Prior knowledge:
The structure is a single chain. The chain is α/β, with parallel strands linked by helices and about 500 residues long. A hairpin with a 3-residue loop joins strand 6 and strand 7. The protein has 3 domains: about 120 residues; about 170 residues, Histidine kinase-like ATPase, C-terminal domain (Heat Shock Protein 90, 2-Layer Sandwich); about 110 residues, Response regulator (Rossmann fold, 3-Layer(aba) Sandwich). The chain has a 5-stranded mixed β-sheet with strand order 2-4-5-7-6, covered by helices on one side.
Amino acid sequence: MESPLHRHLNRQIEKYLSQQDIQNSPDLSAFVEVINQTYLNYDKDAELFEHSARLNDKEYSEINKKLKEELQKKELFQEKIIEAIKQLNEDGNELDGQAGLLDLIKILNREIDIKKDFQSKLNLAKEMAEKANDAKSEFLSIMSHEIRTPLNAIIGLVYIMEKENTLESFHENIEVLKHSAQNLFLLINDILDFNKIEAGKIDIEKIPFDFKELVKQIAKSLQVKATENLNRIQLDIDADFEPNLISDPLRLNQIITNLVSNAIKFTKNGIITIQINQMALIDDVSTFKVAVKDTGIGIDKDNFQNIFQKFSQAETKTSRQFGGTGLGLVITKKLLNLLHSEIYFDSQIGVGTTFYFTLSLPVNKRYDAVFTQDLQEDYTEQNLEGMRVLLVEDNLINIKIAQKIMGQWNVIVDLAENGLIGVQKFEKNTYDVVLMDLSMPVMDGYEATTIIREQNKRIPIIALTASASFGYLDRAMQIGINEYIIKPFNPKELNMKLKKYFLK
Length: 504
Ligand code: ADP
């Protein structure tokens, strides 16, 4: 017998057989062995089964525990949802803490509907606000444009009266009138610019120009104003500064002019320095710092935050004392932002102020620099006796003023009330220059210029325009206009431009 006998089998054998019988019969012995093995296997299976049943129990209780935890979490989650919905539920409807999932879904759906409705109302309100803002911009734009025309008349007439009357007392009044009209003109330009920037309607041009030349011109044109306050403007430009750049010279001019004008305004008997430092010149991109320094009154630390706010001046008395609108720095900042730059300043009361910014601009290697702002304040008007000018203009007051002003320089003015008459007169007569208004009835200045250019490529055509919009001017340049003068024009500027084309 190989394995010990199972206790049950042993008992049966003891009861019915003797060990002798089994040992004597090999068949019986084999049979008992098989039965014994079966018993033992059964025991083993039973043991295994019990063991696995015990294991399942353990697993089951673990799963159960986990399920309970999940359930608790779910309940907590549900409570939180109810709590959140209570907060969302602006009608204040009572929610019972035991709300079933279906109820919750209903409530959620209702809340979603309310929020959607609210969102669409918000969108509508936003759309209306945007429309109102557009209307406001449009209104401001039209108004500023319309105001320019009568202002043109005022400025022109003041100029003529100043020349025609020599009486001292009269002269003083005229000076005040002239100053006020000029301020009004600057204000309107500022509003128009600000408005355009706000409406995102300003595009930055990419024009090759000479930055050094631009700064020199600015210093030159503001020198007269600077001398009024006994100030001196000086340039401090790095010797290695690369001036041939590509950007928007008109806007850069506006930025630097704003800063230098402020420096002049807030400084007496001092020095204004325009400083340019070359910081890097890598891969045809020039990075440089422009600083406008003054030795003026300075800005109080308390007002550091305010000065870049629209219509804001450091102190309320500033406007009375120094004039201005508080738009200059806002426009400057926004224009610089359009040029991917930021404006900074340092200031100390009684010591002075420095405004500065950094630009990274592509270097111009291929093109000739265009744009020169060649207006010189100290320019003396020239006698242009014998010069023949065709004035194409429809506004009666503008005509009178232009005729009077040019009459002082002995210019022979021929008049055309619209573009069509202008073209006809041009075909019949000979002129040195055509002065062309751009917006006119019957035929506008663009069309008239195009027709004249088809016949004559050389005749200088100077556009007279009330619109300072660069878009219009671009178009004018494209159709062959040589120069433009923005109304109300500065008589000195007109004289200078006419003289340029007067070949005696
Ligand atoms: P405006 O000059 O038309 O009043 P700005 O926006 O150009 O408006 O300037 C806002 C204010 O910042 C000015 O009113 C002045 O108080 C202050 N400010 C600007 N530049 C200077 C400066 N160089 N020195 C002293 N204060 C200045």
